[in-house]
Amino acid sequence: MARTSLRKDLPLHRDASARFLPWLIALMVYLAALALGAALTVQQVTARWDRGLSDRATVQVPPPPAGTSETLQSRVDAAVAVLETAEGVREVSVLEEAETSALIEPWLGDVKSLADLPMPALITVRFEAGADIDLEPLQARLAAKVPGALLDDHRQWLGELLEFSNTVQILAALIVLLVGATAVASVVFVTRTGLAIHHRVIEVLHLIGAQDSYVARQFQNHSLRLGLKGGIVGLLLAVATMLAIRRLVYGDGTELLPSPTLNDTAWVLLAILPVLSALVAMLTARWTVLRTLSRMA
What we know:
Blueprint: H1 6-9, H2 16-53, E1 56-61, H3 72-84, E2 89-94, H4 97-108, E3 121-127, H5 135-145, E4 150-152, H6 155-197, H7 199-207, H8 212-250, H9 264-296
Antiparallel strand pairs: 1-3, 1-4, 2-3
Helix pairs in contact: 2-6, 2-8, 2-9, 3-5, 6-9, 8-9
């Protein structure tokens, strides 16, 4: 077979349709990276909260009713006594007033001027690892000893958070699949357009002995370069967007929302996107060329 330079005979880089392919892939990778980043962030936050709260509970001890001789401290001591004697309890800790104030400060601002606000005392309870504790009897004992005391094991809240996390991950997966399908369709269109433009040259190459695989290799290498270029641009734009969102959310030091910080594994997954986009573009172009040429034979 003659060693004809297809880069010279098939100037694919000059095709008008191919010029838009890197930008289309950049947009696809940008959307996929944002969706994947959001899903990974929510998953990490959910896992962190689950680890921190799954073996813990919080007891709220409200102030005593007005007109009684009972004090808040005596009610706290009574609640602690009940908790420390409960089976499966590993540690009981009473939050200091300053710690309680710090918890509500993001919502109420500076609470130093709210000294007259009837704030409940908070007690954190840590259970033994793997302990299967029925909290209803413990709640009943607390209510009997300290009327109005409330035991919260965070199960309902964590369940709702887990459900939200699963929903976000499913939506992210659907977005990635939709983006991938759109990228494949774009590569197919651009490749078929290139085949139509260079139809006569390809026929000449066949006459001098060029195989379909030789032609396909030129298109797949061209698509690989375009896919990699577009993927890198899209990833950089997505990272810039994520950093801008982080700065916007935490620019004033507020920490009501979970930190959108990704771990090393998440960054590796995001870094794979440009390579994946390039491989998809390459394989799609090769398949399109071979399939199209086989019909022309």
